[in-house]
Amino acid sequence: MTIILFILIFGLVVVSHEFGHYIVGVKSGIHVVEFALGMGPVIFHRDGKKTRFTIRLFPIGGACMFEGEDEDVTTEGAFLSAGVWNRFATVAAGPIFNFILAFLLSLILVGFTGSDKPIIYDVSEGGAAEACGIGPGDEIIRLGGERIHVYREVSLISMLGSGSPVDVEYRDAETGEINRVTLTPLYDEADGRYYFGFLGAGSYEKPGNPLELILYSGYEVGYWVKATYKSLLMLIKGRVSPKELSGPVGIATVVGQSYEETKSYGFLSVFLTMVNITVLLSVNLGIMNLLPLPALDGGRLVFIVVEMLRGKPVPQDKEGLIHGIGFLLFMLLAVVVMFNDIMRIIH
Asked: How far apart are CA 238 and CA 41, in angstroms?
């Protein structure tokens, strides 16, 4: 069951990404040579009028291959024959469709489970929050200058905090007034981290109307965007070890563990848990692909922006070489991440 769920989840995320490239590319007059799900040898294919649709052996990625991509070809239907803004939109569409998928799935998630509004359930006795006059029922509006929409954002800021004083804006539960205080987190020796002294949201609250459903579904996606880019910043700053990165093997492990933990609660619980994982993965794929690195969509967008600025494209052989080197480096990274995932499972 783990393998089936992993393939369904990963497949949906990858298909949405590649479909974004495909549909915008076709609308821009670019010929899509192949739409592939997976990597490695082809195990199934179907030829459309203009595009070959394939399923490849290893379910760890996908590709939307355009005619003349990374080549100096400007014949009708070739990638370079399209206008610069059409090419920009085609490349950007992959990550954008990941965010669209995450939002659509969030509508289901929030509709069934509700959202963790940033209302404090309780405060720890003698904690930093209590010392500032913050109490149960108060609603956090801003924390450290960030607008807060769901309580998990509070937990995220707390978890990544370094102990520096934080400005808190909150709505008092009794008076309804908005108060502003400066809170200094307290260090917990046992856990080795700083705490604000908030004791979490009491429960998830379902949206009262369609507008609120749409709003909080957007907040759900926004939370995962924040969580992803903050994790990347921690990785860059050395506060997170590269060994903690997970690839397909690690994701499959999480899917399997989540299934085992929720299957006793019934189909709906399993379904919503898998939807939540899919939202997380879709947002992650969208953000990772927007990084300005060779072989990624973000790297290709950089070259298109350079073309806009200089008035002519970068020679395709040079761009193709850079992306090729980037792809090899990412494959090497994938092998290292897979090794770490396997070692975690073994130990």
From this structure: 37
Structure confidence by residue, pLDDT tens digits, 273-324 = 999 999 999 999 999 999 999 889 999 999 999 999 988 888 888 888 888 8
pLDDT digits (tens, 9 = 90+) for 187-242: 888 878 888 988 876 678 888 899 999 999 999 999 999 998 888 887 777 666 66
Q: Which helix (H) or strand (E) holds 56?
A: strand 52-66
Domain boundaries, the chain: 1-115+208-347, 128-195
The Cα 67–Cα 75 span in angstroms is 9
User: Cα–Cα distances in Å, from 54 out to 11, 33, 44, 48, 139?
Assistant: 13, 11, 6, 11, 51
148: its two tokens: 């807060």
180 alpha-carbon distance from chain centroid: 32
User: Per residue in 83-132, pLDDT tens?
Assistant: 899 999 999 999 999 999 999 999 999 999 999 989 998 888 888 898 88
Using alpha carbons, list the distances in angstroms from residue 254 to 101, 137, 281.
20, 34, 12
Which pair of tokens denotes residue 28? 């821009």
Query: Partners of 62 in the beta sheet?
Result: 37
Cα(102)–Cα(283) distance, integer angstroms = 6
- Taking the chain, what is the end-to-end CA distance rounded to the nearest angstrom? 23
Strand partners for 180: 169
pTM of the model: 0.90
Q: How far is CA 62 from CA 35, 251, 258, in A?
A: 8, 17, 25
Residue 86 CA from chain centroid, whole number: 25
| Residue tagged 């404090």 (tokens) | 120
Per CATH, the architecture of 128-195 is what? Roll (2.30)
